[in-house]
Amino acid sequence: MENRTKHLFLKPLCLGAGLCIAMGAQAQDDRPLIEPDVTPVPVTEALIDTENFEIGVFVGVLNIEDFESSLLYGGKLTYHFSESFFFEAGIGFAEGGETSFEKLAGNVEVLTDRERDYRYYNINLGYNVLPGEAFLTENYAFNTNFYLIAGAGATDFAGDTRFTLNVGAGYQVLLTDSVAVHIGLRQHYYRIDVLGAEKTSMNTEVSTGLSVFF
């Protein structure tokens, strides 16, 4: 009788102990063989400042049709009224060179020195088409924007003020949260009749600049 009682108590205890051991072994098997030690690497990005105004200067080359290429310089003021759209007011200065006729004729001057002074001013609407990132290193990235721009204004050249349309594109790289560099390409269109019949003059501008948000 005593042996039977011991047997009845010992059997459940052995079964319980075996079940606990099996569950512990299964829990250990569920753990990964190799526990990865991964530390996230922060990426520092240059973001556009919270201010919406941007002021900048630029320098480049302006190909004045029939009057050679010239050094171009100027400034611009930009207002970003959304993440995609912005207004820009710009002014640029250059100087027209000699025409082919003047070079061949010798002492003949089509324009005076003062009339060769070239100045344009315009108001434009821009659209950020492809915002993205440019990685300098694996830990540092610059925010970038590829944008399209178009507008209207006036050009003072050859003794007259001419209504001018312009269209182009640009690439912006944000060096910090408030400083950016730009590379731009523009076409300026106006009517002119200095060398005979009136025609549309197409002047190509290639420039680079630096701007600050405030």
From TrEMBL:
It comes from the Bacteria. Residues 53-212 form the Outer membrane protein beta-barrel domain. Pfam families: OMP_b-brl. InterPro entries: Beta-barrel_OMP, OMP/PagP_B-barrel, OMP_myx_plus_Proteobacteria. This is Outer membrane beta-barrel domain-containing protein. Residues 1-27 form the signal peptide. The lineage of its organism: Bacteria, Pseudomonadati, Pseudomonadota, Gammaproteobacteria, Pseudomonadales. Keywords: Signal. SUPFAM superfamilies: OMPA-like.
